[in-house]
């Protein structure tokens, strides 16, 4: 390596690309000392057997590597693993999340349709919904360990396959999925593990118990979205997309189950998705009304601006869990954790997740949100009443209408009509 | 199968029972295509080896099967598995929970005493305490996946044994129990898994680490209630029942431990059960008092009626987690989750469940309940004070007494005495 | 055994030590009946093979054993296992926690420096910070199962090795650590299990995936604190201690990873520790201010005294989770659970623990604490305002200064200066 470094210094970086002869033989002696596990794993890998050396993936600019600027991403794997790359890119795993990896425009073999993940046609401006407000609020360090560790899957095969191993046992084990698909927001691994599917796998192995891969990556496809009928936030797809997706999933279930049974079970999930969503919507309505009446504590205008929407109330998928009022953070738990667990628990046939960790929490959230709303309303009345008397209710009424108009809950015509009514009411007094 | 269907159509349903010749040979050709896993599992089962074909369990009414009306329950298994059936029925697993499976009167080999689970002597009216108010509040879909998936154990051997497998490995693995005995309300599997018992099993297997089955199903008995000294809600049994049950459990522990050690450990559980219950009772008393003073928000009369008790406050085992006030939902968490985890964590020798997931949460619940009570009392005073002045406290005092009388907390005599005192106090002013 | 007991009675306890001939042969016949598993485990142990009999660990006073007073602790193991004993004693595992095991002064081979865990030089008075206020609040039974079950590790090799087994498989399995290192306050086992390290171990075993022991007990050392740069409460050590510790950990990581990579990952943990601590400090400041203004509900003077500090507000590592106000119990969750999970989740490379179970909860805690503070302030104003008018703010201002002085937040000089300002403000009115 010393010799190599000397040559580097002499010839300069611009000549580096001509070092096509740089090969594993030159890297290994040093790295056997410095990163022994990496070398050991590579030597036991299919890559080693096929003569794929260090430089194939890492390139040959050692200075860049040392500066941490030569991260190996999907571009390195794509030329040899075309089919996996393409199906991965077009699946949910491949979607751009703007999570610190920036634009994917430099990817080899980029599909033009991918741009639509983040941009309107012919626009370089990223769509706000593909940026993540929660990501934008993180420190650089938490963004790396808390966000990118998982979301790097969009651009890094090593997310699942690990860096130097090629043993397919790793990616065929549900534990490989567990690294990301766990936790309060989407405990798919936990709910599979204690479902009949997971417990049969634990006891009798693959012959009897299906894994994540059995249903979501049949025949080893990298299109993990196959058979999914809703967005990652749990919004149902329109029928023209959902129907063929559902048929795909039933055909997967049918390797073991009667199609009628599979269909009934999945339909149950659909019904529960709708029921759960209506609980979430009831909560959202309560919070919107509090905002209309200036009763949130603190109001959006009195707190740090939302990274995408500024000093407006944000309750959609960009809802934050910091710098909000207490009642919004209750909604966050409801939407991100309990709604997700109810639905995913049902589709994965896990009663404790569907009911206790999901549905019961969802209903308790609604109690908590109603209780907080009642407190805020009373506190608002206590403050308002002695100051402005009867006239106050007219004033509040007009402000609420104004806010409803602004957030698009009523049309201009409806606004004018309802305003008229409030004023007539006032004149009667 | 086509031929068979034709015959069915010709001969009519009333003649079906004479088709004793309908056998696996007729089902398998189609079902090898339509439900391949079921066929494969049956072909590898003890049933297959013993010549037990499809019709033995499923009957011969194929139309009924297709309509989903020929569910295989314990009636199908009982004739051959008598002892397992009987011990199961008389254990906690066999108790009627009215969870959508209806009356068990049609069961073969029904024990007359079973009726007493749900009915007073000579009454067809189900006892309210064997109906579950939480079940009655569910949607049909959540009732199925969230309740019946586990509670079907009362009527379905397949809950544990699965549908077509007969491999005893499945039911001898703690994972088999995990499917239901997990989650926030009774994480027995989780607490066993990380207890010394569970970790030794994980490392050295059955020879050193006992499983659920080792202690709760010794020698393969299906009487899973053996050695249990309290109801499933955690109410201690009277000594005449508890004492022999305890002796049974100590004799099970004694296969590995000195009886004195086992006894000491279990007695510790009893002490902690009593301590934990007194925390729960303190919380209940606070809520009852708020109800007496009309301070719950909302009060029971202003919300959807309880399915069993209407517009009354319900804090017993029928406590709901929806359509209640915030403080009642805190009690729900306390009773259903934290009380249960404290006790079960202790008996299963798991410090994190006994202390952090149980006892500490129980005590934090009490803080939260006291804080909410303080808020409700202050809000009540704020509303009441400016309106009625001093007279108000007399009025409230009389209302509280009335409510106490109604819920049986004081006798008619006590009511009259205390009413007299309040009035005398008023006259003094 | 009967003969033995007779001899005991005849010769008296003072002669017992001369019974060097009491040996396993005398114990086994009875105990094969009474504690069969213990005997079986011993017979399969390295102790049995080396001729180490019952009396070597248990002594020979059978009456004392029967009274439960002959607990086998580290003194029994130390003479033969000197190195393990010494490294264990000097590690975090060996620290005195006063958790019911009392003073360690009677330990064989006691290191003089150990006294400093609990005592100032030449003082017999235990330092309050080595007593645990939470332990002092427990019932005797919960103290045993909830505290000592794990904290007995300071004095009992059996905590990890179990009582009669000597199979090193037990202590080389992460499950052995899981018994204590799990749960809401420090889920190290859970976060390892679903990290890349844990999932590779689960799939490919030790050759690819490191365990707890790989990094924290390299080469089988019992010094489990090696490479740790902060106290068990998460307070960073000063650089002169932290720096060599960090170098030790990097040298452990370097068995698999490039030192630069390991260093970067660990530095990220340091940054997140600082960021997380500042969130905790913000919350503490809010609560201290409420206490200064007498707005906690209830105030420390109106509740059962803290076991170490009496009727003062305690927010440090002795913070309780019972008999406090709601806002302090929110801080408890923040510090003990969410702060710990954020940091440990980061160092153990688990995104769900670092972010969702840790960082997001920490930020939601802060929202909840701010909301509760807002409620308490409003309730305080509602009570105070109509009574005292403008003068009231001067009075409150002076009280707050007094309290700040008392808790050392301002110096006497600062107190006098600020007091002067408040009074001048009042005179202007």
Can you give me a brief rundown of this structure?
Three copies of one chain form a homotrimer. With 429 residues, the first copy, chain A, is an all-alpha fold.
Structural overview:
3 copies of one chain form a homotrimer. Chain A is 58% helix and 0% strand. Chain A is mainly alpha-helical. Chain A has 4 domains: 48 residues, no CATH class; 76 residues, no CATH class; 159 residues, Up-down Bundle (Hydroxylamine Oxidoreductase, Chain A, domain 2), CATH 1.20.850; 38 residues. In chain A, α2 packs across α3, α18 packs parallel to α20 and α21 packs antiparallel against α22. The longest helix of chain A has 38 residues. In chain A, 37% of the residues are buried. Chains in contact: A-B, A-C, B-C. Chains A and C meet through α3, α10, α13, α19 and α20 of A and α15, α18 and α20 of C.
């Amino acid at each position: 390596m010393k010799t190599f470094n000397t040559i580097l210094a002499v010839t300069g970086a611009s000549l580096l690309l001509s070092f096509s002869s740089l090969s594993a033989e030159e890297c290994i002696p040093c790295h056997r000392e410095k990163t022994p596990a990496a070398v050991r794993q590579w030597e036991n890998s299919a890559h080693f057997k096929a003569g794929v050396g260090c430089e194939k993936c890492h390139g040959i600019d050692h200075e860049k590597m040392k500066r941490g600027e030569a991260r190996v991403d999907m571009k390195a794997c794509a030329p040899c693993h075309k089919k996996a790359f393409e199906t991965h890119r077009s699946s949910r795993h491949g979607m751009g999340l703007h999570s610190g990896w920036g634009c994917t425009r430099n990817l080899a073999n980029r599909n033009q349709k991918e741009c639509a993940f983040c941009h309107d046609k012919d626009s370089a401006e990223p769509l706000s919904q593909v940026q993540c407000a929660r990501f934008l609020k993180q420190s650089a360090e938490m963004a790396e360990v808390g966000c990118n560790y998982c979301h790097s899957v969009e651009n890094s095969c090593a997310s699942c396959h690990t860096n130097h191993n090629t043993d397919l046992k790793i990616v065929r084990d549900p534990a490989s999925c567990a690294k990301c698909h766990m936790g309060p927001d989407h405990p798919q691994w936990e709910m599979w593990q204690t479902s009949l599917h997971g417990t049969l796998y634990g006891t009798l192995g693959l012959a009897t118990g299906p894994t994540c891969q059995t249903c979501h990556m049949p025949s080893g496809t990298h299109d993990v979205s196959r058979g999914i009928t809703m967005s990652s936030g749990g919004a149902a797809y329109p029928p023209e997309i959902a129907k063929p997706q559902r048929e795909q999933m039933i055909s997967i279930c049918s390797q073991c189950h009667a199609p009628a049974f599979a269909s009934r079970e999945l339909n149950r999930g659909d019904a529960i998705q709708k029921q759960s969503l209506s609980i979430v919507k009831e909560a959202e309505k309560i919070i919107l009304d509090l905002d209309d009446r200036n009763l949130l504590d603190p109001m959006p205008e009195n707190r740090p601006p939302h990274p995408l929407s500024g000093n407006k109330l944000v309750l959609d998928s960009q809802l934050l869990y910091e710098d909000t009022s207490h009642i919004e953070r209750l909604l966050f738990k409801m939407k991100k954790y309990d709604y997700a667990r109810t639905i995913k628990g049902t589709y994965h046939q896990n009663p404790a997740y569907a009911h206790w960790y999901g549905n019961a929490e969802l209903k308790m959230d609604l109690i908590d949100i109603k209780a907080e709303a009642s407190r805020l309303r009373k506190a608002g009345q206590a403050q308002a009443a002695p100051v402005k008397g009867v006239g106050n209710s007219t004033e509040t009424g007009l402000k609420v209408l104004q806010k409803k108009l602004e957030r698009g809950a009523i049309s201009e015509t409806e606004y004018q009509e309802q305003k008229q009514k409030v004023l007539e009411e006032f004149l009667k007094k």
